[in-house]
Write a structure and sequence with these properties.
The protein is α+β, with helices and mostly antiparallel strands. It has six helices and 13 strands. Strands 2, 4, 5, 8, 9, 10 and 12 form a seven-stranded antiparallel β-sheet that branches.
């Protein structure tokens, strides 16, 4: 929303606004993206599993450490909401906020999806993005964002006063409950902020509000990841379809998404080890 200007503008307002920004998290000390390693690992990999996620629904899938997985276009332009967990410990899950702070509001090849504290380690690395060409459009929009939290029935009820059970939050909750034999209440506590795969979003230049526009995803497009640890994933096909007109709607055209899991050749991961948890001692100054 617009911020009302103060009644009196300070004399040094121009100087204050002119102060140059500082990057919060310089990442030069992080291990660089080793494109040659991942390209070598991709060469000759074999498809071992495929999962189709129906429209307005979600499915879980498992990815062993050292395997690749893709989220791919299926029958029409569709946005997907992705959750990731350590398959052996659901309390370690994707941390969209820290991923955003370490990389950017939108992610692409070479960026990593980081896990929650106290582990703070890469869960997955993006190794191929067929929509990397999109960059930033004239509205400030980009693809694959980590700023939108996921559509949910609580916000929908707040804004419309109506129950809607096929928001991405509910889809992910049902899928995880079924996968792990949990109650809906138990499963819901593990559902978290997402990577919005294929979604085109940004902030308006005037009011700085979060916006969405029709996804540019087309036949043949996919986003590919390398699992840095053993992972459990869940993907929801958003009820907004390509999110070009509405959010959480029965009116939007919705399509399936395809998940493909690939195993590299045995000799392609020589010397590679799963990502380690943070080395911080957790004493917190005590």
């Amino acid at each position: 929303m617009p911020i009302s200007p103060p009644e009196t503008i300070p004399a040094d307002a121009t100087e204050r606004r002119a102060i140059k920004p500082v990057i919060c998290y310089p990442v030069q000390s992080l291990p660089a993206y080793d494109a040659a390693f991942y390209e070598n690992a991709r060469t000759g990999m074999s498809l071992i599993d495929t999962v189709i996620v129906p429209p307005r629904d979600a499915r879980c899938f498992t990815i062993p450490a050292g395997h690749f997985f893709r989220i791919a276009y299926q029958d029409g332009p569709q946005v997907g909401d992705l959750n990731l967990w350590n398959s052996k410990d659901l309390t370690e899950k994707f941390f969209s906020g820290k991923t955003r702070a370490l990389h950017a509001t939108h992610v692409t090849t070479g960026d990593r999806l980081w896990s929650t504290l106290p582990s703070l380690r890469p869960l997955a690395t993006i190794t191929h993005d067929t929509l990397a060409w999109y960059g930033w459009d004239e509205y400030g929009g980009g693809v694959h964002d980590v700023i939108g939290t996921r559509c949910d029935p609580y916000t929908n009820y707040l804004l419309s006063g109506e129950d809607y059970h096929y928001c991405c939050h509910s889809n992910l909750t049902r899928a995880l409950a079924q996968e792990k034999n949990l109650s809906l209440k138990e499963a819901e506590q593990y559902v978290h902020d997402v990577l919005n795969v294929f979604m085109c979003t940004g902030f308006t230049k005037d009011t700085h509000q979060y916006f969405m526009k029709a996804s540019p995803v087309r036949t043949g497009d996919f986003l590919e990841f390398f699992a840095e640890i053993d992972l459990l994933g869940a993907l929801s096909t958003c009820p907004g379809g390509d999110c070009g007109s509405s959010h959480s709607s029965e009116d939007a055209a919705c399509y399936p998404l395809r998940i493909e899991i690939y195993k590299p050749k045995d000799d392609r991961l020589a010397g590679w080890k799963p990502a380690k948890r943070s080395g911080y001692d957790q004493t917190h100054g005590v």
